[in-house]
Amino acid sequence: MPKFKFTIITLFEDALKPYLNTSMMWKAQDKGIVEFEFVNLRDFGLGPHKSVDDTPYGGGDGMLLRCEPVFAAIESVKAVDPSAEVILPTPAGELWTQEKVRSFAAQPKHYIILCPHYEGYDERILTIVDHKISLGHYVLTGGELPALIIVDSITRLLPGVLGGETSAEIESFSDGNNIEYPQYTKPADFRGMQVPEVLLSGHHGKVAKWREEHTRKV
Ligand code: ADE
Predict the structure, then answer these.
(1) Residue to mutate, 138, 141, 145, 149, ligand 1, most ligand atoms under 8 Å from C-beta
(2) Same domain for 30 and 110?
(3) Which atom of ligand 1 is nearest to the CA of 137?
(4) Rounded to two decimals, what is the model's pTM?
(5) Would you tell me which of 51, 103, 134, 136 could form a disulfide with 93, CB atoms 3.0–4.6 Å apart?
(6) Is residue 118 domain-shared with residue 73, that is, in the same domain?
(7) Is the domain of 116 the same as that of 183?
(8) Any idea what DSSP says for residue 180?
């Protein structure tokens, strides 16, 4: 199966690498299921200071990402793989839900995630974007945290990434509106808080019934 690839265009790749090189994200790379690549937007900056932003026409606070470095960075990736699709994390995007995660995870693809920073971006950047994704109704300082969440939520669904064959399937939100049943591990008694008897019984039928009855809906 051709593997998944995420190319992350950012000014702050050092903020992303520790997470992506840890635990499941590391394992997914190590097993060859996913590949992460970083493109430093600064390399495409303008002038001696490699500038990537400027003030808004019409006035106003803050700086906006300029078109030239962003287009050049994306085009450098697309020159190698024209099939790559561009994701822009933005609070103005479509809400990222588990249903969307599943549809993104269903097809091996190369996604370019552009991490905006500063107060925003030149509107013309949207012409080179395929997917605008919002992580929720709040505003973050940049696209790095959304990029990590998008990558993590897709990668954990790829075959071979999680331990148990079915763990991604049965887990929270797997059918779109369930969250999982309560789970316990050792010890059976912790400070007087007991694990439900049925879970200790070894009776698979009863355990399944209990879990079904205790699946918490949202
Ligand atoms: N960038 C800043 N805030 C964001 C959000 N809530 N979702 C996606 N990208 C963002």
Answers:
(1) 138
(2) yes
(3) 6
(4) 0.91
(5) 134
(6) yes
(7) no
(8) P
Cβ atoms of residues 76 and 102 within 8 Å: no
* pLDDT for position 117: 85
- Residues 9-34 have pLDDT tens digits of 999 999 999 999 999 999 999 999 99
Q: Ligand 1 centroid to 135 CA: how many Å?
A: 6
Cβ atoms of residues 40 and 10 within 8 Å: yes
CA 191 to chain centre: 38
Confidence of residue 216 (pLDDT cuts 50, 70, 90): confident
**Cα 134 to Cα 91: distance, rounded to the nearest angstrom:** 5
What angle in degrees, to the nearest 10, is found between the helix axes of 13-20 and 23-30? 80
Question: Does a structural domain hold residue 146?
Answer: yes
Please tell me the distance between residue 192's alpha carbon and the centre of ligand 1 in angstroms. 43
Q: How far is the CA of 196 from the centre of ligand 1 (A)?
A: 41
Q: Measuring from each residue's beta carbon to the nearest atom of ligand 1, which residues come in under 6 Å?
A: 89-91, 134-136, 138-140, 143, 146
Ligand 1 centroid from CA 14, angstroms: 19
**163 compared with 59, residue with greater pLDDT:** 59
Q: Are residues 184 and 122 in the same domain?
A: no
Per-residue pLDDT tens for 87-140? Answer: 999 999 999 999 999 999 999 999 999 999 868 999 999 999 999 999 999 999
Coil/strand/helix, residue 132: strand
Distance between CA 98 and CA 22 in Å, rounded?
23
Domain with 187, as residue range(s), is 178-217
